[in-house]
Fold:
Amino acid sequence: MNSDLKSSQANATLALSPMSIPGWKEPVLPTGKYDGGIASSIYSPPTPLHMVIDPLKTRSLALAVGDSLQVYVNGKPTDAIKSIENGEENDTITMELPWGWLKDGLNQMFYRVKRISGNFADSTPVLNLLFNNPVSDISVSHPPSLGPTLPATFTLTRTYPRDYDRVTLTIGTWSKTIANLPAAKSFTYTLTAADLQQIGGGTHPVSAQLVDQLDNISLSQTGSVTLWQDHCTSLAETYNGWIAHTAARSGSIRQFPMDGKPVTAFFNFTDQGTPNGFVGVVLYRDFTFVPGQYQFTFEGTHVADSPNSSLVNPILSAEDPQHIGDRREVPKNGIWYLFLKAFTITTQQTARLYISNYQDGSNGNDFGLRNIKVEQLNSSGGVMSASAAKLELPLYTGPVLSIAYP
Structure:
């Protein structure tokens, strides 16, 4: 018989179906170019590629003792060889392809059966397999801080970009999967206003995941980014992180009638006891700031009840992290006034803001607080509106006692 088995008799005897590769990926794009793909999970050092040849699928009469099977990759014989021993003629055959035979991109694979006589036949069709080697890494770079005046653009870089890659950018609990990537190694994604709203303020972990079409997965290192989100606390239901300090005395969030209508806010009424010793911080809260210009505002009032010339007025102040603020004396008229402090943060930092009262006396030192806001100014430096409270009170320039800050 001719050694290349050209005869119809030989072809009928040895019609060999391709090997099976457990765990291979199919389908693989583009359609028609590949039969399947080999992921690193089934072929990477030191894991060999596992293959199965089922005699029932070869349509041959039987393998014989002394026959051998050898895997060919890209036209070259490999170290994956199996000789048929006594009793194995009809067994399922398993073979392992050692690491190093597959190259990046398209690989062609088949196996050859050799008879003792020297005749041989090859499995058909030849398998066209995609293999991505090396698997691409992914990295993400970004500014340390995000805010209204700071860019929110993230740069993602693949070491070996391939068609049909998918990249997922994760910030905190928010994530965005990006497909249809450009061919370039690096590309950018800019967070939208909706993205920023969903992410929320605070310091968040940042990472990226790359998945190629063979389901090879790469993860970037995890970084962090601080996102500023404007703060608003009405003090109608909760303190929202604000902490009452010594000058809060017995004050609390409560309802009180003003102009015949119930108003819910933080109200502090004069405590019974010593006539003085009430100067100090009323409320404070820590914020993680990103670089930018800010304004800190709240509304304050002196509750109008029984007028008396001997009563003292609270002297309230919105104070920045440097304990600097404009003190204003609040007349006992029940009007809500606006207290404002603008300040600049040059580096990302955690810092504390304060609402303080510089009135040390107790007789009539009653006040209400509401609508605390901490806002980053827009890029033009304009001042944002702060409800209908009136910015009318003059600065208080009289003597005051020093405050012990928390």
